[in-house]
Amino acid sequence: MFTHIDHVTLGVADLEQGTAQLRRLGFHVQPGGVHEGRGTHNALAWNDEDYLELLAIRDAAEYRAASRTGASFEAFIAAGGGIHSIALASDDLEADVAAMRGRGIAVSDVLPGSRTTPDGRTLRWKLATLDPVHALPFRFIQHLTPLAERRPSAAPHPNAVHMLERSYIVVADAEAKAAECARILGFAQPPLQKGTVIMSNMAIFQLGSTGLGIVSPYADGPARKALQSRGPGAFQALYRTTSMGAAARWMAAQGMPPLERGVRNTGEHAMLAAPAEACGAYIGFVGPE
């Protein structure tokens, strides 16, 4: 079964520049490693159990030779980057792929994956991808290397983030796309609720401690801007911090202007970094002051 959102991947043109942007937002970003034979490399910002991945093309020729999706990632980066995919963790990927196919979902075979860390260790996983016909940016992953070996010891994030709260996908019709998402995941379809920061009607799927939102805008706001400028797709990751004040003070110390603030439908305050500040995505923060 699908247990939680394992990670959100931000596609960036330059890994060093992307790392610098996330560090200004207060994420402790560490080198990830090289994806052998795939032409890409990454950097990671680890939370308690999930992580934020920065992904860039390291060798364009190798990437094109290995890519099963043509130049789509290159085109995505050229259009401004942002959240390229949302990886859902599975505890039995073969069974989940078989179940999805039984529900009529077009999904790839399960394939092996690996990367080599800067200290020479090889980390391994299994991966499946959703067919583009579904127009949802999902990948499905089952790690073969235990979390304790994958997650390096690291200082806490200066922004006091400790987990992904939600990731959001904007579409024209949230109810229709949520019905398709429910069929993909094998979950019940959640009712729509009103999101007051992203100004959208939202269907929230809860996967463990993480939420996956399928949204459509009802007024001007981040979701409508993303839909109009880039079309349907993942556009925001919302992170829970133990101190909004610590996050704001860190960003101010980096010379950043204060982030836009809003009040969620839960009554909590949230801060939101715009794509120009956050590697082409909206990155939000929520938590106590």
Keywords:
289 residues, alpha+beta, 2,3-Dihydroxybiphenyl 1,2-Dioxygenase, domain 1, 2 domains, eight-stranded mixed beta sheet, 16 strands, 24% helix, 39% strand, globular
Word description of this protein:
The protein is an alpha+beta fold. It has 2 domains: 2-150, Roll (2,3-Dihydroxybiphenyl 1,2-Dioxygenase, domain 1), CATH 3.10.180.10; 161-286, Roll (2,3-Dihydroxybiphenyl 1,2-Dioxygenase, domain 1). Helices cover 24% and strands 39% of the residues. The chain has helices at 15-24, 60-66, 72-78, 93-102, 147-150, 174-185, 222-230, 244-253; strands at 2-11, 29-35, 40-46, 51-57, 82-90, 111-116, 122-129, 138-143, 161-170, 192-195, 200-207, 210-217, 233-241, 260-263, 269-273, 282-286. A hairpin with an 8-residue loop joins β15 and β16. The longest helix has 12 residues, at 174-185. The protein is globular and about 45 Å long. The model has no long low-confidence stretch (mean pLDDT 94).
The sequence of SSEs as H and E is EHEEEHHEHEEEHEHEEEHEHEEE
Helical segment count? 8
Share of helix among residues? 10-25%
- Major β-sheet strand ordering: 2-3-4-1-5-8-7-6
Average pLDDT for all residues: 94
What name goes with the CATH superfamily of the largest domain? 2,3-Dihydroxybiphenyl 1,2-Dioxygenase, domain 1
